[in-house]
């Protein structure tokens, strides 16, 4: 069994393009759920309107790339208003119900056959990412070696001996942009949650009636948190669409939202770096389990009578689910969370 | 809310009835009649025709009520009399079926709860609402009014709000000192005892420089030792020129601190008067005090 390959794959993925999508989506969710206590079960919809806003603008309507970004962000704000205005004055559970339904509506709208000639229906869309990759500063034919770092035909290999990290020049560009966005959002959120504005959000999470009695317009704050978190969700959608150079409606299913929740709870909700750590760990665990089991079957370590390749996927999710349950029992505050805080009675 | 109701620095010493506020308050109410809705010299709150119905049940139907500025007024009545509902209406936490009221010269019946608080009428809750997973200090700071840094974009630029934050922090320290919570300032509010949370809630309300403080059953679930200190704190509010309206069940407390008592029964205001007048009032005894008082004698 090739342990080097398994470990390399898992670690490559752990800081790679897909992990960035989870981290960004969870950063947005952290502002909504972690700090403000908003049960947004529709983060996938924010990613979807971001991704489709970009793809439709560029591929269908021939708008410039940057207009596509503006349209995607605008769509996220509109979605936040549509979901927030009717529900944010009501009890918290109403937002949960509306967001989960709205996310399904959004997915089904993009999937609908009625306008499939524009949206591609269930096949989705491509051919919108060229302007992004045209900006790629990493050449696709570079070849050089420097100590343990080597570039071979645009493919970067960083060899640590025990494992190596490998990325194509396209991955590298997505990661450069993605990590830069994460850095920017962490700085913004870090400033916000340590400001009086962030203090009001935390107050709303604890008891919105009390905050209202202190003269704060709770509805406006909740709307702002929903919209800002949704904007970051749309950015996650951009990165997702661009990294794969396509959009497909069914990738934005409810599962997608719950991956963001897993990432957030694993890392620690209401902790600035929780989403990033959670995303890296979640995606590392997923890949090491999937690759490890697959390798074990290939090498005959697990006999084909016990399980075959097609059973690896479901088993990985079973194991991750089990891990999540154990986490909630033994470390409910997540990795970066504060147990003392969590153990306080919240009524 | 330009009023500079700055809290006193030194902790208040109980000086009984020798304080100036009580004399002024009692004087301002001298000679006022006892019929419900009786006009006062200088009312800070004037409510008329306030009605709240839940379906067919009329929970509140108050014809007229005036609250004299600078006094401690108690709102009493048997369970289900509509006191808390009336309280919620006045503070914007519930919407009336009809009725209007003026608070400090401004129509307040269309205001939302947060606007009422900004206008200077700040309430506390029967079940204390401490923000449990925030520190005591953060609980205080969130109360301060007109914070620049509470605007989203300004939150991103600390130099815009750091000075104001420092001033609010200094004020919070004074209040925490006065309410004897200073040593707890970095603890989570959820780690405080029930009585300390009551103190915190009152101190937090004072961060807004209110003109009128509305206390919903401030003595509910408070031990006797703390009760005395809470009473002194409420008297201090009057000394600082604030008006206090409180809902209460405990007649001893009403006797000890209230300048004026308004009695509700079955949603209506049935009588008003000084504590002594109310104790002697046959209707009140019938509606409420009789049974309650006997029980309270142990």
Question: What layout of secondary structure does this protein have?
Answer:
The complex is a heterodimer of chains A (347) and B (298).
Chain A: H1 3-14, H2 17-35, H3 43-60, H4 65-87, H5 92-111, H6 116-119, E1 125-126, H7 130-134, E2 144-146, E3 149-152, E4 155-159, E5 164-167, H8 169-193, H9 196-206, H10 208-213, H11 218-244, E6 246-247, H12 254-267, H13 274-298, H14 312-330, H15 339-342
Antiparallel strand pairs in A: 1-6, 2-3, 3-4, 4-5
Helix pairs in contact in A: 1-13, 2-8, 2-11, 2-12, 2-13, 3-4, 3-5, 3-11, 4-11, 8-11, 9-11, 12-13, 13-14
Chain B: H1 20-29, E1 43-54, E2 57-68, E3 72-76, H2 83-90, E4 98-103, E5 106-107, H3 113-119, E6 121-123, H4 136-141, H5 152-155, H6 162-178, H7 194-206, E7 212-216, H8 224-239, E8 243-247, H9 251-257, E9 260-265, E10 268-273, H10 275-280, H11 282-296
Parallel strand pairs in B: 3-8, 3-9, 6-7, 7-8
Antiparallel strand pairs in B: 1-2, 1-4, 4-5, 9-10
Describe this structure in a few short sentences.
Chain A has 347 residues and is mainly alpha-helical. Helices cover 67% and strands 6% of the residues of chain A. Chain A has one domain: ABC transporter involved in vitamin B12 uptake, BtuC (Orthogonal Bundle), CATH 1.10.3470.
